[in-house]
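A quick aside before the break. I want you to see a complete sequence-to-structure record at least once, exactly as it would be stored in a machine-readable document. Don't worry about memorizing anything.
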Amino acid sequence: MQEIFARTALTPAGWQDDVRVTIGADGRIAAVEAGAAPASAYRVPVLLPALSNLHSHTFQRAMAGLAERRGQKGRDSFWTWRQTMYRFLDRLSPEDIEAIAAFAFMEMQEAGFCAVAEFHYLHHQPGGGAHADIAELAARIADAAGETGIGLTLLPVLYRYGGADRRPLADGQLRFGNDMAAFERLMAGAQGHLAHLPADTVLGAAAHSLRAATAEEIRTVSALRPEAPFHIHIAEQGPEVEEILAAFGARPVEYLLGEAVVDRRWCLIHATHMNAVETRELARTGAVAGLCPITEANLGDGVFNGSAFRRAGGMLGVGSDSNVRISVPEELRQLEYSQRLKDRARTVLAEPGASCGRALYDTALAGGARALGRESGALETGRWADLVALDPAAFAGLASGDAILDGWIFAGGNEAVTDLWSAGRHSVQGGRHVAREAIAGRYRARLEKIVVGL
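That is the input. The structure line, written in tokens, reads:
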């Protein structure tokens, strides 16, 4: 049993003072008591339920900053960035992938994320040959999660084709590809490799996109684990919308909703380019829109139709995607600021009279937990003890109540995070991951080898 005493905490009843949270040996919250005495509990200034990161490609963390030089010809875009990514990933060994994943997972926890949905599509050796264990790289992700203590929802990804015209995979894509029989072996192998991880670990599934899998294949993959999360990239880029429209006679979200039973266990990543009808119809499904505002800005994707989606009752959460920058407050800040620029207004994602920081945080809490299939998102008995502690002196001094979240999200950063628990695992203490030195040292050694001459 662990006990945490917070001067103030965000509970289902709102902000309460002198809160003692008891964590059971199973990693779940056993009790929440307001107006309590600290006794011998671990003391923190502010305690919040921690967010889940709903979309990550950890291997891309090591290429952050390597694709920021403008090309000699034409206009740089997601598609030119992707060529750099393909060259980069062909340098990665299984040992590299594990070291990078551990470093990214550690940074996520230090930034305030308790858990992550790893959208895992890097499966094979350079050139496309399978490892002796087809799930070798899934095992590396699992081992990195085990080392860092982060909560993991692993999403092995089906990636069949190089475009909506079903052309074969080429170049860097060859490391991603599996037919359905191979993918089912991959799923079985991944399940075995997760067996040693804690009870909050989840195995879901994903299809990369409408460009990389047929509608029939998407339905088949989504049915492999019918109670688990299912994720897919969709409508991220304007050229992608044009390609799907030309191939199938419908826009991406429109086409998917007509071809699959999209419901609460689905997470549609990006969904940046939706018209008004798609926005409304996606909101009605209960699926989560998985937004990655920092990556979407970095890649020039566009701006999600957030105000209309929320008015329609849509659920959303945030993820770190390419991991060019990992930060809870910065993802939420970028989300709100993008809406302000689009709508030329302020506090767009808050209801009248409400705190914008609180609205953003509450929304991302619920959306992230749903997208990961994770029983968390509140300081409530029976939920996983996914908790983050903040020091408000790092951003807002004497702020209290919702002003704490306004201060952290709009004026603060990762330095405000003092502690983090993932299903009771106290991985961040005093602002640093308990295994930072070893994880960072191994990452630096691997990175020096990877980036030479890139």
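Two observations worth writing down. The two ends are 49 Å apart (CA to CA). The chain has a mean pLDDT of 95. We'll return to this after the break.
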